[in-house]
Every structure is written in structure tokens, then in C-alpha cells.
Amino acid sequence: MFGLTFEKILLIGIIAVFLLGPDKLPHYAAQLARLVRQLRDMANGAKDRMRDEMGPEFDDLDWKKLDPRQYDPRRIIREALADEDPLKEQSATISRAEPNPEGAYLKRKRAREAALAALEPAPFDSEAT
């Protein structure tokens, strides 16, 4: 936890003995233990309150699915890019070589406009402006 190893904790303890002295160290150690105990009780109290408010559904939840550490932005982007684009399919079928380049351009433009017209328009809220 927090990258603390046994050696680092021992070093912090030795420094605390020198800085605080042997007469004040037990008092501060007791205060630290009391603080840790209060934090643990607060966390358990919050968990119990959540269990009381949610009822039996609290135990049925899969908390691992709600863990934000499982979301990998690279994977999300890769999956989003893997989805098929309707405009891409039409442009691939139209982009074949044609004898008249201006005609091909107009056909591609019309195909794109038709594909965009087929998509749903963006929502508009007249009261928002």
C-alpha cells in the first residue's frame, strides 16, 4: 500500500523516535491508532448504511464490474474504431475508377449526402438558445 515496505516503515519509526523523543512517542502512537480505528469504523458504517438503504440488492451487485480500474481507454477506442461506418461502405463501393472524374466526384458527393440524410438529425432544443 502506497509503496511502503517494511524497511521504509522501520526508517520512519526510527526518525519518529529521534524527532519526538521517547516520552511523546507513545502518546502520538496511540493517537495514530485511534485515527486508524475511527477511519475503519467510518468505512464499515458507510458500508452498513449502504447495505441498509439498498436492501438485499446490495449483496447481489457485482462490484468488480463497477471498478473503474477495469476500463482500458485503449480497448474502448479500439472497439469504437472497429465498428462499421455506413459512410465507409458506400464510399468504398463508389470509389471505383470511372472514365469521368468530375462525374465520379458528383456521384460520391451525392452518395455521402444521401447517407447523411438517412442518419437521424441531431436533437434540437429551441428553448436552449
UniProtKB/TrEMBL annotation:
This is Sec-independent protein translocase TatB. It is found in: Membrane. It comes from Cryobacterium luteum. Coiled coil: none annotated. Residues 82-107 are annotated as: Disordered. It is a single-pass membrane protein. The keyword Cell division does not apply. The keyword Transmembrane applies. Keywords: Membrane, Protein transport, Translocation, Transmembrane, Transmembrane helix, Transport. InterPro entries: TatA/B/E (IPR003369).
